[in-house]
């Protein structure tokens, strides 16, 4: 069975798009997306850490990077699940969690407020 792209004109999640949000905030461009697409996830994370270290004078000491990484990855996956689906229920199924767990995750990571326009 193949995955069929659903019509994104219905449902609350129709306005949730990470790419669209970042473009509206002038944080990314089409050219950046093309270059980013050529990098692996490991390269992106490593580069982001390198740039953060450079901005702090090469010092990221005292930050619990190793223990924080699972939380950072889960936050990113939760944002993607909302932007890739048309409803919360579909996003929960996409992640393999029940609706109650999904709603707890949304509150924990404050994901819906991320997509709200300011």
Tally of separate helices? 7
Terminal Cα separation, in Å?
A: 40 Å
Q: Helix- and strand-based class?
A: mainly alpha
Low-confidence stretches: none
How can the largest sheet be summarized? none
CA-based shape: globular
Oligomeric description of these chains: single chain
- Proportion of β residues? under 5%
Number of domain units: 1
Name some characteristics of this structure.
mainly alpha; 118 residues
Textual characterization of the structure:
The protein has one domain (15-115). It is globular. It is mainly alpha-helical and 118 residues long. It has helices spanning 18-24, 30-37, 41-55, 65-84, 88-95, 99-109, 111-115.
In short:
The chain has helices at 18-24, 30-37, 41-55, 65-84, 88-95, 99-109, 111-115. With 118 residues, the chain is an all-alpha fold.
Layout of SSEs?
Elements: H1 18-24, H2 30-37, H3 41-55, H4 65-84, H5 88-95, H6 99-109, H7 111-115
Helix pairs in contact: 4-5, 5-6
